[in-house]
Amino acid sequence: MHKQIQEALLIGKKDEVEKLVDQALASGLSAGSILNQGLIVGMERLGVMFKNNEVFIPEVLVAARAMNAGMAKLEPLLIKEGIKPKGSVVIGTVKGDLHDIGKNIVAMMLKGAGYKIIDLGIDVSPEKYVAAARENRASIVALSALLTTTMVQMKNIVEAVKATGLGIPVIIGGAPVTRDYADQIKAQGYAPDAASAVEEVGRLLTR
Predict the structure, then answer these.
(1) Reduced to 3 states, what is the DSSP secondary structure of residue 146?
(2) What is the CATH number assigned to the segment(s) 2-80?
(3) Domain spans of the chain?
(4) Smallest Cα–Cα separation from 86: which of 103, 111, 62, 109?
(5) Confidence band for 83, pLDDT divided at 50, 70 and 90
(6) Mean pLDDT in residue range 142-153
(7) Torsion over CA of 94, 95, 98 and 104, rounded to 10 degrees?
(8) 168 backbone dihedrals φ, ψ, rounded to 5°
């Protein structure tokens, strides 16, 4: 059953994922096992395929929609089972930048990997990031920028998060962003794509 859920997820069959999740629950499988061995493994496989250029953004978006549909059925049961997310990620596109496709894909992939996502949307100021990080006891703050003119905002956010003294790592990404730039502004993490972002968040939270 887990394998069938993965396969339906990979081809983005939302209705099929919902039906299989219902069937799995009816057969006595726990919500935790359906999440961890079905949806999460499916999203991990998708991440590998995305990295290898076997699938592209449209397929990822459709698969993520199917994953969200499956998650919607499981979330109330996961709470009952006492299963907690791996961590909470505050994510957004930085101030002055209105692009969100890359950020949305990263958010979906992280959600599919078992993280709680607090998506602040676009044009997010340092103050908003800090307030959301405090309020949600964030494990990590993720910044996206698609323009060279807005990526300079990342430095302000990294400094604002550091100034809280909460010790929350910051990960950055987006088309013009590089590992060198992350080092330069003292961001703890950098990811060139959504699948790498999931790996990098995992690395930052286990170091």
Answers:
(1) coil
(2) 1.10.1240.10
(3) 2-80, 88-206
(4) 111
(5) confident
(6) 95
(7) 30
(8) -85, 125
Residue with the two structure tokens 């991990």: 44
Q: In sequence order, which residues have a C-beta less than 8 Å from that of residue 167 and are 6 or more positions away?
A: none
Tokens of 202: 């995992």
Rounded Cα–Cα distance for residues 105 and 4 (Å): 23
Give the domain 88-206 fold. Rossmann fold (3.40.50)
Whole-model pTM: value is 0.87
Nearest to 115 by CA among 78, 157, 166: 78
CA angle 7, 29, 59 (to 5 degrees): 20
Rounded distance, CA 144 to CA 154, Å? 8
- What number of residues does the chain have? 207
Which uninterrupted H or E stretch holds 42? Answer: helix 40-51
Residue 4 pLDDT greater than 90, yes or no:
yes
Spell out the long-range contacts of 200-206 with Cβ–Cβ below 8 A and sequence spacing 24 or more.
200/171, 201/87, 201/89, 201/110, 201/113, 201/115, 201/140, 201/142, 201/171, 202/86, 202/113, 204/140, 204/169, 204/171, 205/86, 205/87, 205/139, 205/140, 205/169
- Give the pLDDT confidence of 103-113 residue by residue, as tens digits: 999 999 999 89
> 84: pLDDT confidence band, cut at 50, 70 and 90?
confident
Q: Is the pLDDT assigned to residue 207 strictly greater than 80?
A: no
* pLDDT bucket at 185, cuts 50 / 70 / 90: very high
pLDDT of 79 reads 86
| Domain 2-80 shares a fold with domain 88-206 | no
